[in-house]
Specification:
Rna Polymerase Sigma Factor, Chain: A; alpha/beta; 7-stranded parallel beta sheet; Rossmann fold; single chain; 11 strands; 14% strand; binds NADP nicotinamide-adenine-dinucleotide phosphate
Length: 409
């Protein structure tokens, strides 16, 4: 069996680290050809020592320069590329079969699209790519000419669970799902599921990032606390599985054991269960259609206590409703919401605005940008997507500044 050659975009992050853990358990199957990150050169140097990739890439030029020096000192011959071009180059290397797309946020769009367009099998964690430009992204997947099919495999645990619950013939993302009535995404409810609403005003970034079940990067942790993450996942599910917003539901399931459900027309509901550990969906996607050990402990049903489910409270989680609003509005609304959220989350992490301001900034930007500053039609080219994203960010920054100055007074 020839080894699958991998590029990991976002190699130093939470998903990147879990993917390396799974791949390292199966050296006969996987070869780490390239690793890419933003500016954490020390972490990438450590990964190069361990995995000896042929290439690595850092977006940040100065960090890449320091990494070149460090690797020379270590006697490691990995070629270091840099800048946006360097990251996109390792996403599309001719010798690579599979690309993990695990860069956070809108920054993942161009490298992920580069991998799709180069015909790679893409394991998608970067949901923001789909939220920004779902139609153009899925069109690129349909015409990608990937040799390993399906060309796109979802890594997000909920979408991976849905994928696993589909009949084999429908496991081609972007195709219609005959016989499916709806899909139900589970949500842990995050760290503030039971916090009194008034107390949310004063929660800190540290509290928001302390997720009770999942260990994740800071941006997605805040998104989980506001439930914007679930909203982005609803939009992601729409594009991946071709379902309308009305056929995508969310249910709170604090134990995070059931990772999602597919409800069929005949009354059957299929679910995928497992320990809350991202190595399971990553291993499923890496080895598809086979199964491999992921290093994850299996469920012990005798020891499991109750599995509970509840509808999300709309008043507590306004970001979820905003995502449905954006999806139903169509055009560039999802892109605008994503841009506003990234700006607001960063401002919250930098203590410029409060936790509840995240939803209010997103709401204000969605209303204002749709009415005035940003084109309402969906982007048809990646250049459009980037331009619309920049315009929405300008609006969002103004709303952040207004809230920041109010907090200061
Ligand atoms: N963590 C989870 O359990 C989970 C689950 C489902 C989906 N996801 C999705 O997976 C993606 C990654 O999440 P994460 O939790 O792994 O994030 P993370 O721990 O914050 O890691 C982000 C990674 O992306 C790199 N990066 C950030 N900006 C970049 C840029 N402009 N160019 C190149 N690399 C860049 C970072 O490099 P540096 O280290 O150099 O900054 C790091 O390697 C997100 O889209 C998230 O929504 C995550």
């Amino acid at each position: 069996m020839s080894r699958q050659r991998l590029t990991l975009l976002g190699a130093t992050g939470s998903i990147g680290t879990s993917t390396l853990d799974v791949a390292a358990r199966h050296p006969e199957r996987f070869e780490i050809t390239a690793l890419a990150a933003h500016k954490n050169g020390d972490a990438l140097r450590e990964l190069c020592r361990r995995y000896r990739p042929r290439y690595c890439a850092l977006l940040d030029e100065a960090a890449a320069q320091a990494l070149r020096k460090g690797l020379r000192e270590d006697g490691i011959s990995s070629e270091v590329l840099s800048g946006a071009e360097g990251v996109q180059t390792v996403a599309a290397l001719p010798e690579v079969d599979t690309v993990l797309a695990a860069i956070t946020g809108a920054a993942g769009l161009l490298p992920t699209l580069a991998a799709v367009r180069a015909g790679k099998r893409v394991l998608l964690a970067n949901k923001e790519s789909l939220v920004m430009g779902g139609a153009l992204f899925m069109e690129a997947v349909r015409t990608s000419g990937a040799t390993l099919l399906p060309a796109l495999l979802p890594v997000d645990s909920e979408h991976n669970a849905i994928f696993q619950c589909l009949p084999h013939a429908a496991q081609q993302c972007g195709t219609s799902l005959p016989g499916v009535r709806k899909i139900i995404l589970t949500a842990s409810g995050g760290p503030f599921r039971e916090t009194p609403f008034d107390a949310l005003r004063d929660v800190t970034p540290e509290q928001a990032c302390a997720h009770p079940v999942w260990k994740m990067g800071r941006k997605i942790s805040v998104d989980s606390a506001t439930m914007m993450n679930k909203g982005l996942e609803v939009i992601e599910a729409h594009w991946l599985f071709g379902m309308p917003a009305s056929a995508i539901e969310v249910v709170i399931h604090p134990q995070s054991i059931v990772h999602s459900f597919v409800e069929y027309l005949d009354g059957s509901t299929l679910a995928q269960l497992g320990s809350p550990d991202m190595r399971t969906p990553i291993a499923q996607a890496l080895a598809f259609p086979e199964r491999i050990d992921a290093g994850v402990t299996a469920l012990d049903f005798a020891a499991l206590q109750a599995l509970t489910f509840a509808a999300p409270e709309p008043g507590r989680f306004p970001c979820l409703a905003l995502a449905y609003r954006a999806l139903n509005a169509g055009g560039s609304a999802s892109l605008i919401l994503n841009a506003a959220n990234e700006v607001a989350v960063e401002a919250f992490l930098n203590r410029r605005i409060g936790f509840l301001d995240i939803a209010s900034v997103c709401d204000a930007v969605l209303s204002e940008a749709q009415a005035t500053a940003v084109p309402r039609t969906a982007p048809t080219t990646v250049e459009d997507a980037i331009e619309f994203d920049a315009a929405a960010r300008r609006v969002a920054k103004r709303h952040v500044a207004a809230r920041h100055s109010r907090r200061g007074t």
